[in-house]
Amino acid sequence: YGKNTIKFLRLHKEGKKQFVKEVEVCAHLRLTSPQEYLDGNNSLVIPTDTIKNIVLVLAKKNGIPSLEQFAIDICNHFMTTFCQVAYVKAYVQEVPWQRLHEDGVPHIHSFICVPDGIRFCEAEQCRNGPLIVFAGIKDLKLMKTTQSGFEGFYKNEHTTLPERHDRILCGEFFCKWSYGERKDFDFNCIWKKIRECILESFAGPPDCGEYSPSYQKTVNCIQMHVLSRVPQVQVIEVVLNNTFYNVVDMKNLGLTNDKEVLVPVETPYGSCTCTLGRKS
C-alpha cells in the first residue's frame, strides 16, 4: 500500500539565480505482518498521509540532487526509521522544466516546460536486501522523414501491406534501464548520456542519417548503443509505439502529391518491445 501522485515543486536559490525541480512521487510499502488485512489491526500501519508528509520533508531537508538520489533517500528513510517495513518502492518522475534563454543568455528565474521526454526513476529495497535502482525516459516522440523502410516481410492471403523502401519513421519511446545494485553514480550525467545515445541511434549521422529496415532494428540499435557506451547500465527495455502516416490522394483536386501532405493513422498503431541485458 502507499501514496500515489505526491506532486510538488522544489525551489532552490543560489544568490539571485533560482532552480526548480517539479516532481510526482509514488511511495509504496509492504509491512512485516498482514494483520491489518487479516485482523483489522492497524497498529503497524503507517498512514498514507504520513508517507506523503515524509516525502515532502525529505525534499525540504535533502533537496533533489537527482531523481535517483531522491528515490534512494525515500527508501533509506523508511528502511531505517520503521522496523515494520519489509519492502519499499519509490517512483519519481519529473516535469520537464528548462531554463528560459533570451538571446542565448540564461534567465535567472524563468523557465519553460518543454515536452521532449519525461525523466523518471524507481528505487526498491527489501529488508536485508540490496537497493536496486532503475531509471528511464518516457513520452519521447521522435520522427525521421526518410531513411526508413519495411521490405521482405512474411506474406500470406491476409497481407495487404505494400513493401516500402522509403517511409516516415515516427513513434513514441518508453525506455527503462537498470543499474543493478545501488552504486555511487552521477545519475544526472548518465541519464543525459543515455538520452543522447537514443537520439544518435535513432537519427544517425546529421549529414546523411542511417537506414532503418524496421522498427525492431531501430529498437535494437538503440539498446546496443546504450550498452556499449554506458557500462553502468545492466538491462535496458525499450518500447516503441509507432505512428503511421498515409499520403493524401489529391488526384480529384487536380494535384500530384509526392509525399508532401500526409495524415496520421490514429488507430490501430503498431508497437514493439525488447529487453536486452548483459551476459552475467
Task: Walk me through the structure.
The chain is α+β, with helices and mostly antiparallel strands. The chain has two domains: 2-129, Urate Oxidase; 138-277, Roll (Urate Oxidase), CATH 3.10.270. It has five helices and eleven strands. It has helices spanning 35-38, 48-62, 67-81, 187-203, 215-229, and strands at 2-14, 17-31, 85-94, 97-102, 105-113, 118-126, 131-144, 169-181, 235-247, 262-265, 271-277. Strands 1, 2, 3, 6, 7, 8, 9, 10 and 11 form a nine-stranded antiparallel β-sheet that branches. A two-stranded antiparallel ribbon has the order 4-5. The relative contact order is 0.10.
Q: So, CATH architecture of the largest domain?
A: Roll
Q: Tell me the fraction of residues in β-strands, as a range.
A: 35-45%
Helix content: 10-25%
Query: What structural category do the secondary elements indicate?
Result: alpha+beta
A few lines on this structure:
With 280 residues, the protein is of the alpha+beta class.
